[in-house]
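Practice record 12: protein with manganese (II) ion.
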Amino acid sequence: MRRIATEEAFSIREVAAELKKIVRGPSSSLDKLLVKGIYDSVEGSPGYGRMNFLEGLLDVEDRRLKEMDEFGVDMHLLSLTAPGVQMFDADTATDLAALANDRLAEICSRHPTRFSGLASFAPQSPKRAAKEMERAIRMLKLNGFIVNSHTHGEYLDDPKYWPMLEAAEGLDACIYIHPRAAPDTLKGPLQDYAMDSAMWGYGVEVGTHVVRMMAAGVFDRFPKLTICIGHMGEAIPFWIWRITFMNSRAQGIDRAPKTQLTMEEYFRRNFVVTTSGVEDHLALEYTIRKLGIDKVLWAIDYPYQPTKPAVEFMDSAPVSEAERAKLYHKNAERVFHIPALKP
Ligand code: 1WB
Ligand code: MN
């Protein structure tokens, strides 16, 4: 069984160095709590234990490959880890996205059956981002895009970002909306008890992002755009009935614009989800029944989650072998244009 893991994080030294500067700078962003722990940690200080993520992020071709071999993982679909380039100024972000994409393409071409990659872009400069997106697919042959949710507190429903959505749709390339911490405008009650990141804040942030996009009518303008979200759909599959009901009511009487389709129709048409970090068979079964077996892709969330239980989770999932093949690799091959192995 070919196993392709689809939300696998990496970084490069240049981005790590720039993130360290951000940590030491004046920003009061919620991302800093976690970013400091990973990129600028001092022994004994809060978050110090996260320092070892950095090694896992910067290494792609050594320890990571060995771990993939050990657990039978064929391929990582790599993406520049959160917050990507999205905390930087527009010029720095644009340059570093291109550099990360070049490095990623080199790795993929050295190991075409072991690594594929999602390209980064800098939403801070939407027109240049759209150009980089085109280069990443046409020249670098990368497999789609990663965006780490909001950029300076703004979301992809804002028409100023639509050149990037237009580029992705035109290139038939999926955009993976990965979490980062919520912006200052949303951060208040998320600051305590480690709720800022993967435990709760990340899901709230990405869930908010995609509901904004659906409710704004983004998918009327870009009907062929595919968005991927991780963590078993960031709770949206479970909430979609109520989102749909309340949105259709709001379209008559409140501030919700009229849309051609319902929220659930957009979610089923324009989204795929990955299992990253949610190793719960009941949640998997629910998500498959809600979205369809062709819309769910396996992921580990390396190096933030361990490989072994992610493999055991999918090996033991209560599905047929044909369904397991879709979850493990066929859906990823279709959505991210990864060549199927020759029989
Ligand atoms: C964690 C998870 C941290 C992710 C991250 O930092 C990312 C964590 C950028 O579990 O602490 C992730 O990608 O899910
Ligand atoms: Mn992740």
